[in-house]
């Protein structure tokens, strides 16, 4: 099982834009409305913090590899190598470069219409890290920091997220 996780602030920001772009999801009048729903577990699939807590139970399982979106952004080649190794796949240098090229955010965004149809433009928005800084207010930032610290920070999955690096203003 390959578990790909993302820091909660960027995840919330991304999901806010995704929800407002897809008619099948509830849309939100404002970021503030979305943030309240996100923090009070009123999201279509529940609480992200509970989700991370549940997966933390399996963090040490031999057949589970946890990798973060941020890790892949930091060093895509290393991420692809680690995933291939975990899956027992041996890649030549040329194959590695091919996977890296086809799995880059820009490549996936360029091919989104072909691979994901109408959802493509909604799924592939920016592809960056730290976009949360464009939406979070100081009190929201503090509230998420508190919940993260209480619920996830000391877990293996929480430590993997490098919250101090990606989620501190």
TrEMBL record:
Annotated source species: Alectura lathami
EC number(s) given by UniProt: 2.8.2.-
UniProt-recorded name of the protein: Sulfotransferase
Family listed: Belongs to the sulfotransferase 1 family.
Domain of life according to the entry: Eukaryota
PANTHER family for the chain: SULFOTRANSFERASE SULT (PTHR11783)
The entry's keywords: Transferase
Gene Ontology terms for molecular function: sulfotransferase activity
Keyword Transferase: yes
């Amino acid at each position: 099982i390959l578990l790909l996780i993302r820091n909660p602030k960027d995840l919330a920001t991304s999901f806010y834009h995704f929800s407002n772009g897809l008619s099948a999801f509830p849309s939100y009048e404002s970021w503030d409305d979305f943030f309240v729903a996100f923090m009070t577990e009123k999201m279509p699939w529940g609480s992200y913090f509970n989700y991370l807590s549940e997966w933390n139970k399996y963090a040490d399982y031999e057949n589970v590899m946890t990798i973060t979106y941020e890790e892949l952004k930091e060093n895509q080649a290393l991420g692809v190598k680690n995933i291939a190794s975990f899956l027992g796949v041996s890649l030549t240098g040329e194959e590695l470069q091919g996977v890296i090229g086809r799995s880059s955010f820009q490549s996936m965004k360029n091919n989104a219409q072909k691979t994901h149809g109408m959802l493509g433009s909604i799924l592939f928005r920016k592809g960056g890290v730290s976009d949360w800084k464009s939406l979070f207010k100081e009190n929201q930032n503090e509230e998420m920091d508190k919940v993260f610290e209480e619920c996830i920070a000391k877990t293996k999955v929480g430590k993997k997220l490098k919250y101090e690096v990606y989620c501190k203003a």
